[in-house]
Amino acid sequence: MTLSDTRSTQDPSLDPADGEQATSPSPGRRLLNAARVSARWVAGNALLLVLLGSYVAMAYGVATLSHWFFAVGILVSYGVDLALPYVKSNALSLLRKNRFGLTMRFLIRQLLLIGFFGEFPGFPRHATALLACGFIYLFVFLVLYGLPLETAKRKHRAIPVTVRTLDLGEAIPPPLPRNLVYRSYVRKILYLDVLISAGATASIVSDEVAWLYLGVGALIFVSIVAMSVMLPQAIRAHRVPEREDSLAAVNRALGYARPEVVVYFSFASASSDFMYQVNMWLPVLKSTGRSCLVVLRERRSMELLAPTDIPALCVPKADDLGEIHLPYARVVLYPGNAGKNVHMLGRAEMKHVFVGHGDSDKLASSNRVSKTYDEIWVAGMAGRERYRRLRGSIPDEAIVEVGLPQLDEVEPAAPEARQHPAVLYAPTWEGWTREGDYSSVPELGVRIVTELLRLNPEGRIVYRPHPMLGYRSEEAAEEHRKILEILEEDNKRRLAEDPGLVADPTVLKEMAALEERMAQLQDRSRDSPAYHLTEQERVVRHEFAIARWYELFPMVNSPRLHFHSTGRLPGLFAVFNSVDGMISDISSVVSDFLASGKPYALSNPRDLSVAELTEQVSVAGAAYLVPVGDDLAVGDFLESVRAAGDDRLAERRRVLRTFVLGGPEAQKRFSYAVDDLYDRGIRTFPAGEVPVPTVATPFNQEDTEPEEIPPEVQEEPQFDLQEGEHGNG
């Protein structure tokens, strides 16, 4: 069985603790090679030892005036410095933490070279001074080169709004200098010292000081060329519009676009881990037929927004957001709960809706914070019941069941018995806190995989863990590595038995090229080959690349080999369509899998009783439970998978599917909910209207002047001291 041709570009089922949208290497080229992780670790530490040894060799060369020790040491040190960034290990981080970062390494190498050159007999003293001055010139040049670049960068970071698919006219900010002269410029300039070092080393070996003069001259020439190339670009990049001009241009563009529905998203650590929360809603928004807008708060999130022709803007500062005019917008959708949501929630003319990013039984899915929204949209009755846990904190009428339109991609189970079924193991991660830890990997992960291989030796395991698994727990990370090793060993056995399972390298090469093309379409820098494309052109080409990728994937995705699946491709729903059953943890992945109607098992790492687990977790009502004890019940689950929909829990899954995910035609129900809420919002505040302050006063607002007191009333009061009024009695 191969992955179906599902054109999913997102991973919508992963909730705050259920998954992320991280890019990953080509699945066709990555068949559970866990050994690569160990190899990278070994390579990184080996290079670290070689680097330290090269400095020892240079120091020994200085002490003994050995040409060759010093020459070999300096060459090796340069080579290792070039290689380290490309070896994914903690070696660079370890060097920085121990005050032996890149600049320090260059400085020590230069000082050793000056010391060696000065002690070497036969060279005039001014040659040593020239060598030292050459290195000083290099650092001065680094400062002069970086000053305009850093100033331009600071000015660009001060631009109040960045936009996509909106025409700002003359207020479009100029681009930053090209990556060739801008990106990693410190590292590039430091490496220019190789010109002097090569000249000095050649002089030492050949006993000809002319090589040093040539090296210093080459450095000066290259630095002048580099400055002449960079300066015009940096000067152009400094000409950014003023804040008021930028905001005015954005408001003009929004006036033309007239967005009616806004998707608002903020996250304190915007990254590929969390942008799936927005990306999963983009196709759904397109299908509503409403004019939409995406509002983001972190600049990094703008880069990770999927290609779309829906207009988008990023406004980092709350003050700037307050000056963005949205006169026609009446519905705001919030995929996540974040502190910065309050900056949009203050707009009383809009209806604010929490839509979330998946349907999960985790406590985070029924947060009391959601009370701040006008409505909370859930998939089905299960979502409503979760909020009832809060005992009246959320009014029942604020909950609206709209379904999950994204699940239309999930194919229903085919009634076909399979002797060697494919099983998806999709554990969640350990969460931010112990209370939010639902992961089965530390306690059960290895045992589940081992039991599946024992009871289903010819079947396939698709392992799709939460990409943040092991982020907080070393134990979880270690168990994850063990699972990879187990599956890799079994893959080796299968390949030895049938060498024909090896993937076609031609197909792998084309898939890698498609992934590279998708990365280029995501890159909007001036150096990107896709820089000249419009957003609509990016969307069309991106969709074509994805479609072609899915056509090729079955050719390299053997149904007899285990598969480690992460990232955007293949999408989670495509993985659902490729397996016969699933073992997972408490997460929205289980809720989404209900759409397939296939059997699933739910881990019970806290070893709750069936009654307790069913009471706390709705999806447990139709799950085969996997407890912590000796009896993992994996055998019962596999028998249900082989029954192909004729197992004892099939009817319960059908009932639970409606309860958790709602009825059919989720896209229509969602679009209707958007239209209904927009109509209510526009009736309350017609287009262009915003709330105005209401003055609260005990006086008649029609009277602008206080009433004049008649003269006779203004007489001095008479006091009778004998009665003790106003006196001492």
Describe this structure in words.
The chain is α/β, with parallel strands linked by helices and 729 residues long. It is built from 26 helices and 14 strands. The strands form two sheets. The protein has an eight-stranded mixed sheet with strand order 1-4-3-2-5-6-7-8. It starts with 34 loop residues before the first helix and ends in a 45-residue tail after the last helix.
Layout: helices, strands, pairs:
Layout: H1 35-64, H2 67-83, H3 91-97, H4 102-119, H5 125-157, E1 162-164, H6 179-182, H7 185-190, H8 193-206, H9 210-237, H10 243-257, E2 261-265, H11 276-279, H12 282-288, E3 292-296, H13 299-304, E4 312-314, H14 318-321, E5 331-334, H15 342-345, E6 351-354, E7 375-378, H16 381-388, E8 399-401, E9 422-426, H17 441-455, E10 460-463, H18 474-497, H19 505-522, H20 535-556, E11 563-564, H21 572-578, E12 581-584, H22 588-593, E13 600-604, H23 610-616, E14 624-627, H24 634-642, H25 650-661, H26 666-684
Parallel strand pairs: 2-3, 2-5, 3-4, 5-6, 6-7, 7-8, 9-10, 9-12, 10-11, 12-13, 13-14
Antiparallel strand pairs: 1-4
Helix pairs in contact: 1-2, 1-4, 2-8, 4-5, 4-8, 5-9, 8-9, 12-26, 17-18, 19-20
Low-confidence segments: 1-37, 717-729
CA distance, first residue to last residue: 106 Å
Largest sheet: 8 strands, mixed
Spatial shape: globular
> Which strand order do you get reading across the main beta sheet?
1-4-3-2-5-6-7-8
> Which class of secondary structure composition applies to the elements?
alpha/beta
Task: Provide mean pLDDT, rounded.
Answer: 83
Rg from Cα: 33 Å
Number of strands: 14
